[in-house]
Write a structure and sequence with these properties.
Length: 954
C-alpha cells in the first residue's frame, strides 16, 4: 500500500471540483501539468482511488516513451483493455454487443490501429471511443485518465481534442497529465495545450513544488532511520520541492555530497540531448554557482556557433530558464549533476574564462563571484582578497552565514595573504562572524586550533579573549571561569585595549558565578581602561555588567531598567548590534525574574525582531529572544504560539532547534501527547550544551513519564547532569523539578504498594530538602520560585495524605490555596489550573463540595482551552461534571479524524466501511477505533456510540 499523500490536499480538492467528482454528475476535463518527479502520478493515483470509492468507473491509460514506434491510440487501447477485468452488471448494452456495432472499437481493443490503416478507420476509432464512454456513463459516472500525454502519438492527441470539444450527454470526465519540463518549443503537445485550455469545459492545473513542511513530512514518513534536522534541511534545499528528487537523495543516504549515480544519470539525459555548443553554455552556467548574466556568459563561453542558438536550445529543452537578464538551471540538482560531470581541468578552464571576462568588464562585480572563480581557477592570492571583500559585503547586509563562509575560505588560503596581514585579527573576525550566525561550537573549534600555533604574546591574549566570550555565551560556568582566567594571565603584557576587554570578560563571568564583589571591581577596571583606549563597545559592556550586578541586589529596579534602555539605544546608534541585543536581553530578564511576564514577553520579542532584522536570528541574545518568548508563551497559556515560534527554522543550528523542541516538550507533556522518541533522543543528547534546554526538557520528561518510577528516573538523570556538567545541582530549577516529581508520586501513591510508598516518601523529603537549600542559596527568590516552593510543600503533604501517613487537612488546604494564589499572581496558567484541581481534592474530602466544584469547572475551562487532556482527566475523575462540561472535556480528547470515525461507528459501519469512506486503510481505521474506545472509556463500539450520543459528541 502506498504511503499517505502529503502536501496535496488543496490540489486534490481542486481536482475533485474541476472534474465534478464532488457532485453527482462529473463531466469536465482537467489538464494536469508538472515537472518530472513533482508528484503528478501520486496525485492521479489518489484521485483515481477516491473516484472509485465514490462509485465512479475509472479507465486509466498510460502513454509510453517509444519514440517513433508508438502505436496509434496506444494509451486509449490501454484504458479500454481494462474493461474486460471490471465488467459491470449495470451496463445497458454488453461490450461484446457494442463492439459488434462498432467494429473500430474491436480493432482498437484487440491490438490497436497501425500507421497504414488510413484516416477513415482512425475517424471511426475516435467516434467509437466517444460512443463507448457515453455508453458506459449510462450506468454511472465515468472518468478517463490518460497519463504522460507528452509521449502521446498524433492520433491520441487528435482523439483528445475531439473528446474535449464534445458535449457528452452523460457524466464523462477526462483527466490528462503531462510533463511541463518536456514541452520544448517544438513539442507537438505545446500548441495543442494552448488550444485545449481555451475550451470552456477544460481547466488546467499545474502542480507546484511541495512546501518545506510537506517535504519534511514526506521524508520522515519514508524512513525509519534517525534523520537529523540538518539532514532534512539539506535535502529540502537540494530537492527544491521535488518529491522524487528528495526520495532519491534520502534512499541513497545522502543529505549532502555527490548525487546518487542513478539520479545524476537521469538528470543528465536532458543535457545529453543538447548539441555541443549548447552543452558548452550549460557547463559554463554550472560553474557560475547560480544565475549568471547573459552579458557575462557570452564573454566567458566559447562556442563554434552563435551563442544565441545555443542558449535558445538550452532554454527550449528546459535545462536553463531566464531570470530577468540572467540565466540559471531549471533545477539546482541539474546544476549539481552537470558540475559533477566535469573533469577538474574543464572546471579550471571555465572558471579562468569567467575571471578573464570579469577583468575585461570594469562594471560593478560582486566580490563573491570573483572569489568563486578565483578559487576554481587556482588563483589563491586573488581568492583571498576577494573573499575578504565578499565577507565585508555580506556582513554589511546581515548575511553572517555567508560572511563566515567567505572568511573560512580566506583562512584556507591565508598563506597567500599579503605580507604583514593580521592573521590573528582574521581568526577573531571569523570567530565573531560565526558567533553572529549562531555557530558557537564551530567558532570555539576554530579558536582552539589557532591557539595551538599562537603560544604567547598579545596575539594569544586576543584569541583567548574571543574564546572566553564564546565560552561565556555558550559553555558551562566552569568552562567560562577557566577561559576568563586564562585570558587574564595572557593579557598581563598586552595593550590597554586588550586588557580592557579581558577585564570586562572576567567581570561578566564573575557576575554569573555570583562573585559580585569581584565582578564590580573588574567591571570598573575595564571601564577605566576602555575609556582610556577609546573603546566604546567595551565601555558599554562593562556598564551592562555593573547594571546586572545592581539588578541582582534588587536595588533601584526602575533605574536599572532605564539604564538598560539607554545602553540599548546608544549601542544601536553606534552600530553595535551585539551590545544592543545584550541590553534588551537583560532588560527582558529584569521583568521575567520579577514575574512581569507581559513586559518580559515584549522585550524578548524586541530581541527576536532585532535579531531577525540584523541577520542574528540564531546568535546569542537574538535567538534567546525567540526561545524565551516561546517559554513565556507556555507559561501564560498561549500554547499555540509556542508552535508558531518554532516555525521558520531555516539556518538554525541543531542546538537552537533542540532548545525550541524542549519548550515544545513542555506543551506536549501538558497535553498528554506522546513525546516523539527521536526528539527526546536528540534533545537529551544536548543536555551538556545548554542549561535551559536541559532544565525544560528534563522537567517535561518528569511530567510525561509513563509512571512514577519513570518520573524518578528522569528527575535523577537531570539532577546528575546539573551536578556533573553545570555544577548547578542546587540551582533554583530544583524547586520546579521537585514540585513536578512529588506531584507525580502523590498521584501514584493510592494505587502503589507499601514499598513503593516508602520510596516515594523518601524521594519527596529529599526533593524538598534540595529545594529549600536551593532557595536559601538564591540571591533573590522571585514570584515563580516562591510559587513552586509552596507547590512542592503542598505536593509533599498531599503525598503523605494519600499514602496514609498523616492527614493534616488544614495544612493541606492552606498550602494548596497559597499555591493557587502564587501561580495566579505569577501568571502561570496551567500550573494554577492544576493547583486548583488538587485544592478541590482536599476540599471535597473536607466536605466543601460547592467550592470544589467551582474550582474544578474553572480548571476544566482552562484545560479545555489549552487542550490539556491529563488535567481534564484528573478533573473529570474528581468531580462528576455537568454533561456539557463533560462533553467538552471528552471532545478535546478526540482528534478531528477520530470524530469522523466515531460518527461512522455510531452509524454501525465496519472498519472496512469506515476505511473506504475516509480513504484510509482498514488497519488505520482499526487503530482509530481502538483509540476512541480508550479515550471514551468504552468497552465496545456500541458503548462508544452510546457515550457519543449521550454527551453530544456527534
Amino acid at each position: 500500500m502506498q504511503s499517505p499523500i502529503v502536501g496535496r490536499d488543496a490540489v486534490l480538492d481542486e481536482l475533485a471540483a474541476a472534474l465534478g467528482l464532488d457532485s453527482s454528475t462529473p463531466g469536465r476535463a482537467v489538464l494536469l501539468g508538472g515537472d518530472a518527479g513533482i508528484g503528478k502520478t501520486r496525485v492521479v493515483d489518489e484521485t483515481v482511488e477516491r473516484a472509485r470509492a465514490d462509485g465512479v468507473r475509472v479507465l486509466v491509460g498510460h502513454c509510453l516513451d517509444l519514440g517513433e514506434h508508438v502505436p496509434a491510440f496506444q494509451p486509449v487501447a490501454d484504458a479500454l483493455a481494462g474493461l474486460d477485468a471490471t465488467p459491470s452488471a449495470d451496463d445497458v448494452v454488453g461490450l461484446g454487443e457494442l463492439a459488434t456495432s462498432l467494429p473500430a472499437l474491436e480493432v482498437l481493443r484487440s491490438g490497436g490501429v497501425g500507421e497504414d490503416d488510413g484516416d477513415r478507420l482512425r475517424a471511426d476509432v475516435v467516434a467509437a471511443v466517444a460512443h463507448t464512454l457515453e455508453h458506459l456513463a449510462a450506468a454511472g459516472p465515468v472518468l478517463l485518465v490518460l497519463e504522460d500525454l507528452h509521449w502521446a502519438d498524433a492520433s491520441t492527441r487528435h482523439l483528445v481534442r475531439y473528446l474535449l470539444g464534445r458535449r457528452f450527454v452523460r457524466p464523462v470526465g477526462l483527466l490528462l497529465s503531462f510533463r511541463s519540463d518536456d514541452l520544448h518549443r517544438r513539442h507537438p503537445l505545446r500548441p495543442a495545450l494552448a488550444e485545449w485550455t481555451r475550451l470552456p469545459s477544460v481547466q488546467r492545473i499545474d502542480l507546484a513544488p511541495l512546501d518545506d513542511a510537506a517535504m519534511s513530512d514526506l521524508l520522515r514518513g519514508r524512513t525509519s532511520r534517525d534523520l537529523t534536522a540538518d539532514g532534512v534541511d539539506t535535502i529540502l534545499a537540494r530537492a527544491e520541492g521535488n518529491a522524487f528528487y528528495a526520495e532519491e537523495l534520502l534512499d541513497a543516504g545522502l543529505a549532502g555530497g555527490s548525487l546518487p549515480e542513478n539520479l545524476a544519470d537521469l538528470l543528465l539525459v536532458r543535457v545529453d540531448r543538447l548539441h555541443d555548443d549548447a552543452r558548452a553554455v550549460v557547463r559554463a552556467v554550472a560553474c557560475a554557482g547560480g544565475p549568471v548574466t547573459d552579458a557575462l556568459l557570452r564573454q566567458a563561453v566559447e562556442t563554434e556557433g552563435p551563442v544565441d542558438d545555443a542558449l535558445r536550445e538550452a532554454v527550449d529543452l528546459k535545462v536553463l530558464v531566464p531570470v530577468g537578464d540572467a540565466l540559471r538551471f531549471r533545477h539546482a540538482l541539474l546544476a549539481e549533476a552537470v558540475l559533477d560531470d566535469l573533469l577538474p581541468g574543464e572546471r579550471r578552464r571555465v572558471h579562468a574564462a569567467f575571471l578573464r571576462a570579469l577583468e575585461s568588464d570594469p562594471g560593478p562585480v560582486a566580490a563573491a563571484t570573483v572569489a568563486l572563480h578565483a578559487h576554481g581557477a587556482g588563483d589563491p592570492a586573488l581568492a583571498f582578497e576577494a573573499d575578504l571583500r565578499a565577507a565585508d559585503e555580506a556582513r554589511r547586509v546581515g548575511g553572517h552565514d555567508e560572511a563566515a563562509g567567505h572568511l573560512q575560505r580566506a583562512l584556507g588560503v591565508v598563506d597567500h595573504a599579503p605580507e604583514g596581514h593580521d592573521v590573528v585579527g582574521l581568526v577573531t573576525l571569523t570567530a565573531d562572524t560565526l558567533l553572529a550566525s549562531g555557530r558557537l561550537r564551530t567558532a570555539g573549534a576554530l579558536l582552539a586550533d589557532h591557539l595551538e600555533h599562537e603560544p604567547r604574546g598579545e596575539g594569544r591574549a586576543r584569541l583567548l579573549y574571543t574564546q572566553g566570550q564564546i565560552t561565556y555565551l555558550g559553555g558551562t560556568d566552569a568552562e567560562a571561569d577557566a577561559a576568563s582566567r586564562a585570558a587574564l594571565a595572557a593579557a598581563e603584557d598586552a595593550s590597554v585595549a586588550v586588557k580592557a576587554r579581558v577585564e570586562s570578560l572576567r567581570a561578566q563571568v564573575a557576575s554569573t558565578l555570583g562573585l559580585l564583589e569581584e565582578s564590580v571591581e573588574r567591571a570598573e577596571t575595564a571601564l577605566r581602561l576602555a575609556e582610556e583606549a577609546g573603546d566604546d563597545q567595551t565601555v558599554a559592556e562593562a556598564q551592562t555588567t555593573l547594571l546586572r550586578v545592581l539588578a541582582r541586589t534588587g536595588a533601584d529596579a526602575a533605574g536599572t531598567r532605564e539604564g538598560y534602555r539607554e545602553l540599548a539605544e546608544a549601542a544601536r546608534a553606534r552600530g553595535d548590534v551585539h551590545g544592543e541585543l545584550r541590553a534588551w536581553h537583560h532588560l527582558a530578564f529584569s521583568h521575567f525574574n520579577a514575574g512581569e511576564l507581559e513586559r518580559a514577553d515584549h522585550y524578548f520579542r524586541v530581541c527576536l525582531a532585532r535579531g531577525r532584522a540584523t541577520g542574528r536570528s540564531w546568535a546569542p541574545y537574538g535567538f534567546d529572544g525567540r526561545f524565551f518568548a516561546a517559554l513565556v508563551a507556555y507559561l501564560r497559556g498561549d500554547w499555540e504560539e509556542v508552535a508558531v515560534l518554532a516555525q521558520d527554522l531555516r539556518g538554525a543550528t541543531r542546538l537552537a532547534r533542540a532548545c525550541l523542541q524542549a519548550v515544545g516538550m513542555l506543551v506536549a507533556a501538558g497535553r498528554g501527547t506522546p513525546l516523539p522518541a527521536d526528539v527526546v533522543t536528540s534533545v537529551r543528547a544536548r543536555w551538556d550544551l545548554d542549561l535551559a534546554l536541559a532544565v525544560h526538557s528534563g522537567t517535561a520528561l518528569v511530567d510525561a513519564a509513563a509512571d512514577a518510577h519513570g518520573a524518578i528516573q528522569a528527575h535523577d538523570e537531570l539532577v546528575t547532569t546539573l551536578d556533573a556538567v553545570w555544577r548547578d545541582h542546587l540551582g533554583p530549577q530544583r524547586l520546579r523539578l521537585g514540585g513536578l516529581l512529588v506531584g507525580r508520586l502523590a498521584g501514584a501513591a493510592p494505587t502503589s504498594g507499601a514499598a513503593d510508598r516508602r520510596r516515594f516518601l523518601e524521594a519527596a523529603d529529599a526533593a524538598l530538602a534540595a529545594a529549600e537549600e536551593a532557595a536559601a542559596l538564591a540571591p533573590q527568590l522571585g514570584p515563580e520560585g516562591r510559587a513552586w516552593l509552596v507547590r512542592l510543600q503542598a505536593e509533599r503533604l498531599r503525598l503523605r495524605w494519600l499514602a496514609g501517613v498523616d492527614a493534616d487537612r488544614e495544612s493541606l488546604e492552606a498550602f494548596w490555596r497559597r499555591a493557587v494564589e502564587g501561580f495566579g499572581a505569577y501568571g502561570e496558567v496551567y500550573e494554577r489550573a492544576r493547583s486548583q484541581v488538587r485544592l478541590a481534592q482536599v476540599l471535597l474530602a473536607s466536605g466543601k463540595r460547592e467550592e470544589a466544584v467551582s474550582l474544578v469547572e474553572d480548571a476544566t475551562a482552562t484545560a479545555h482551552r489549552l487542550g490539556a487532556q491529563p488535567l481534564l482527566d484528573e478533573a473529570a475523575a474528581l468531580v462528576p461534571l455537568r454533561p456539557d462540561v463533560r462533553a467538552e472535556a471528552q471532545a478535546v480528547a478526540l482528534t478531528p479524524r477520530e470524530r469522523e470515525v466515531l460518527s461512522l461507528v455510531a452509524e454501525g459501519r465496519t472498519n472496512g466501511e469506515v476505511a473506504a469512506r475516509l480513504f484510509i486503510s482498514t488497519k488505520t481505521a482499526s487503530v482509530h477505533v481502538s483509540h476512541i474506545l480508550a479515550k471514551l472509556g468504552a468497552s465496545s463500539r456500541t458503548e462508544a456510540a452510546a457515550v457519543a450520543r449521550r454527551d453530544g459528541l456527534l
